[in-house]
């Protein structure tokens, strides 16, 4: 009887602690859209976390942008927003990760599915915006982030260094370069110099 009681107590405390670490939907939305251009923030669809940790839609969107709230299980802050036509690609990655697939397996599965026409990638270039920062600079009550760092990823499926004129690595901070050339996940990396 005592064992059952203490097991239930531990489970309740763990659930309570977990729920306390997840900001309100309002705060998650406010933080998530910080990664988007200002004219896209108000209408972006936002995914985030319910109080039980379930990943879900926190707000439906009215434009062509999707934003992801910070994962409360991770150490620092990272939110992102992207062009809505990238959502099937992003969603497939989340599903495969939830199934326990590693990064290489996810890459290989999506590459095969794109080539087979099962997974659609945008026909035009599509941008992902990633805003990161430290917990020390994040106000969990307001959703504001000081000294955040914004970087950009422009997906251009199957592009190469030769087809774009981009180098395979940057020579200086902030220089655009192409990553994963010739694959479904080919993208231009733009990492501005950190202040």
Descriptive key words:
5 helices; eight-stranded mixed sheet; 29% helix; single chain; 195 residues
Mean pLDDT: 91
The number of distinct helices, counting runs of at least 4 residues, comes to 5
Distance between the termini: 58 Å
Output the helix-strand order.
Answer: HHEEEEHHEEEEHEE
What is the 3D shape? globular
Estimate nothing, just give the exact number of structural domains: 1
Approximate strand percentage:
15-25%
Outline of the structure:
By secondary structure, this protein is an alpha+beta fold.
Structural summary, described in words:
With 195 residues, this protein is an alpha+beta fold. The chain has one domain. The protein is 29% helix and 24% strand. The model is unreliable at 1-19 (pLDDT under 50). The protein has five helices and ten strands; from the N terminus they run H-H-E-E-E-E-H-H-E-E-E-E-H-E-E. The strands form two sheets. An eight-stranded mixed sheet has the order 2-1-3-4-5-8-10-9, with helices on one face. A two-stranded antiparallel ribbon has the order 6-7. 23% of the residues are buried.
Set out the fold topology.
Blueprint: H1 2-20, H2 25-32, E1 45-49, E2 55-59, E3 65-68, E4 77-83, H3 87-98, H4 103-115, E5 126-133, E6 138-139, E7 144-145, E8 149-155, H5 161-164, E9 177-179, E10 187-190
Parallel strand pairs: 1-3
Antiparallel strand pairs: 1-2, 3-4, 4-5, 5-8, 6-7, 8-10, 9-10
